[in-house]
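lol so apparently i was supposed to do this last week
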Amino acid sequence: MRQDTPFTERNARRDALHPPLKDSTVMIVGLGGGAEIAMHLLRSGVSRFHLFDFDTLEAGNLVRHSCGIKYVGKNKAAAVAEYLREYAGEGIEAFVHETSVFENHSTTRAAMAESDVLIVATDTDSSRFFLNELSIETATPAVFVSMFEKGKAGEVFAYRPGHGACFSCLMRHLGRQDMLEEYEKTAEKAQCHLARDARSMPGIGIDQSFFSALAARKALEILLEGQEHSLPNVGESWTILSLFGIPGVLDEHLSSIKQNPPSFPDCECAVP
Ligand SMILES: [Zn+2]
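anyway here it is w/ zinc ion bound
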């Protein structure tokens, strides 16, 4: 928890609203699905955000985005910051980073180092692996969320420093080593993409909401851990939830697989 926030009128308003989370800072990378996660956390009491996205909100995104038509053409991080202020007033702090996390490593690292939890809602494996590395380095808990093609399923993974697998270990446990190898051999660490983006189709925003809500809930568990207002844990560190089935993996609709994978001993995340 940040301890250095001076008392101000702004903080008094925060106290009146949501005492348990008023001093928490959340960093969100990817303000597509991340926009909804930001709103869940704001309503829960988080009032300080670092928002990263280099992308512009387009009309086609509105089918699954919190921000409406007036934000089309704006950078997604800037749009979400404005949207959060519209909801909660000027009492919130939202630092807008209209860049890729790769562009300025020191800025990305500095924002992460002062955040209590990182949310990774990006759509490239290169950014996921890169942010995983930084979260280990800065000992920042992280929640990774992604939706599979057409919203057929989604997965949420929470990394707690010193407690089990990081994102890279999870990928090794799941046999997705190829993604890691592709990432490691990519010099610029920004060029490996996975064709897992959801398409803009009616109702896809509803399906996305399941996974955004689960990711927000995981982040809250981390932020409230050990506090009087702590939430019951909703499950294991990794959950894959199928909405309408993946043949051979999750045949039943609304079924899930949950695991607590351990660290690999040779990974940076393993406790010495
Ligand atoms: Zn690891």
